[in-house]
Design brief:
One of its GO terms (biological process) is methylation. This protein is of the alpha/beta class. The protein has 13 helices and 9 strands.
Length: 273
C-alpha cells in the first residue's frame, strides 16, 4: 500500500514537473478534454458543476473553468495545489474551491450527490490494493448526482513495459524476480520513494465489480489511441487546427478494444444510476 505521506511527498517533490507533464503528453490531454466535453454535452448543461479529484496543478480544472464551468479541485499535494491557485489567478479565473485532501476520504471534504461530472484522473495510479481502489471509486460515485458522469483514469501495464523497452530493455532480465511479480499483480513498488498500480485493460471491468449496481460503464477510451504514447509525443507542438484534426481521427477508434493495449493511460466513463 502506498501511504498518504509517500504519495504526498512524491508529488510535492515533483509538482513543477507534473505541471508540465501534459505538455509532452498533449494528445492525452486533448483526448481527455474531448471525453469530458462529450459528457457535458450529453448532459445538456452549459455550466456544469465539476469536481476534479487528484487534479494536481489544475490543468483540467483551469481549462474547464475557462469554459464557464464551476470546478472544485482536490489533491493530496499542497505544492501542486499552490501551483494551481497561482495559475488560476494568472488566468483570471476562479475555482469554486481548492481542497487539500486524500481521495480515500474525500466524502469528508465535499458534498455528496453535488456534481454533474466527477473526475478521478490520478488517484487510482497509487492505490496498490483492490480494496483501496474500490473505496475511492465508491467515494467518487458518492460525489456524483444521479445521472452524472464519472471519469476514471488508469495507467496500463503495457505502457510501462513499452517505456522500459525503450529506456532500459535489459532490466526485464536483470530484475526478473521483480517483474515476474509485477506482471501478475500490476503493483510497481520497485523504488522506495513511490508505489503505483498498473492495470491490464482486460481487467478494468473487474476493478469496478463492487459498484456495478450503482453505475454503468459507458465506454473505455485509450488516451493515446492507436498512436501510443511515443508516437503521440510527436504531436506535442503542432498547431491547434492540426491537433484538433488528429484528435478527431484518434477518437474514431479510441473506444475500440483493439486500441486499449496501445494505451499508456486508459479512461473509463461511468454513468451513475
Amino acid at each position: 500500500m502506498a501511504t498518504k505521506a509517500l504519495v504526498e511527498d512524491w508529488y510535492d517533490a515533483h509538482a513543477e514537473a507534473e505541471e508540465h507533464r501534459l505538455d509532452d503528453a498533449r494528445l492525452e490531454f486533448e483526448v481527455t478534454k474531448r471525453v469530458i466535453s462529450d459528457c457535458i454535452i450529453s448532459l445538456g448543461i452549459k455550466e456544469a458543476n465539476i469536481i476534479d479529484i487528484g487534479g494536481g496543478p489544475g490543468r483540467y480544472a483551469i481549462s474547464l473553468a475557462q469554459q464557464g464551468h464551476h470546478v472544485t479541485l482536490i489533491d493530496i499535494s499542497a505544492k501542486s495545489l499552490a501551483i494551481a491557485e497561482a495559475n488560476a489567478r494568472n488566468a483570471d479565473i476562479s475555482l469554486e474551491a481548492i481542497i487539500h485532501a486524500n481521495a480515500l476520504d474525500i466524502t469528508r471534504h465535499a458534498a455528496s450527490s453535488s456534481f454533474d461530472v466527477v473526475l478521478c484522473l490520478g488517484p487510482l495510479y497509487h492505490l496498490t490494493t483492490r480494496e483501496e481502489r474500490a473505496c475511492v471509486v465508491t467515494n467518487v460515485l458518492a460525489m456524483a448526482k444521479p445521472g452524472a458522469y464519472v471519469v476514471l483514469a488508469y495507467v496500463t501495464v503495457f505502457g510501462h513495459l513499452r517505456d522500459m523497452a525503450r529506456r532500459d530493455s535489459s532490466r526485464l532480465v536483470n530484475e526478473w524476480g521483480f517483474y515476474e511479480k509485477y506482471l501478475r499483480t500490476g503493483v510497481y513498488d520497485r523504488r522506495p520513494e513511490n508505489e503505483s498500480f498498473h492495470v491490464y485493460p482486460r481487467d478494468v471491468e473487474g476493478e469496478l465489480e463492487s459498484v456495478k449496481s450503482e453505475a454503468a460503464v459507458v465506454k473505455m477510451v485509450s488516451c493515446e489511441g492507436f498512436l501510443g504514447y511515443e508516437t503521440g509525443r510527436a504531436l506535442a507542438k503542432v498547431g491547434d487546427e492540426d491537433m484538433e484534426r488528429w484528435v478527431d481521427v484518434v477518437m474514431r477508434s479510441a473506444d475500440h478494444p483493439y486500441t486499449f493495449n496501445s494505451a499508456e493511460h486508459l479512461l473509463v466513463v461511468l454513468k451513475k444510476s
